[in-house]
């Protein structure tokens, strides 16, 4: 079947970010979060990587000011171990 036109690009991200998103997925599943309601951010800060779910109506800011509570999962870049999980608002 031929494609009807250009596809709708949903995201473009560096491949190294995908590792951290996959590591955070079990936390989001445990919290019964529907990730389709969120924007996913991956931020490197020093020796850590933070995967953030935010429902901000605008792309600025790290908290969640939208309709759903935000979550942050922090990992050690060196060991890959989860350091913390917390809800944001």
Note the beta-strand portion. Answer: 25-35%
The N- and C-terminal alpha carbons lie at a distance of 45 Å
Overall radius of gyration: 15 Å
Rounded mean pLDDT score: 86
Helix-strand makeup class = alpha+beta
Order of helices and strands: HEEEE
CATH C-level: Alpha Beta
Count of extended strands: 4
Given as residue ranges, the uncertain stretches (5+ residues, pLDDT < 50) are: none
- The CATH architecture name reads Roll
Instruction: Record the strand order, biggest sheet.
Output: 1-2-3-4
- CATH third-tier fold name: Nuclear Transport Factor 2, Chain: A
How does this structure look, described?
This protein has 89 residues and is α+β, with helices and mostly antiparallel strands. The chain has one domain (15-88): Nuclear Transport Factor 2, Chain: A (Roll). Helices cover 18% and strands 31% of the residues. The protein is built from one helix and four strands; from the N terminus they run H-E-E-E-E. It has one helix at 15-30, and strands spanning 39-45, 48-54, 70-76, 82-88. A four-stranded antiparallel β-sheet has the order 1-2-3-4, with helices on one face. A hairpin with a 5-residue loop joins strand 3 and strand 4. The protein is globular. The relative contact order is 0.18. The model has no long low-confidence stretch (mean pLDDT 86).
Note the main attributes of this structure.
four-stranded antiparallel sheet, about 30% strand, about 90 residues, Nuclear Transport Factor 2, Chain: A, alpha+beta
Quick summary of this structure?
The protein has one helix at 15-30; strands at 39-45, 48-54, 70-76, 82-88. The chain is of the alpha+beta class and 89 residues long.
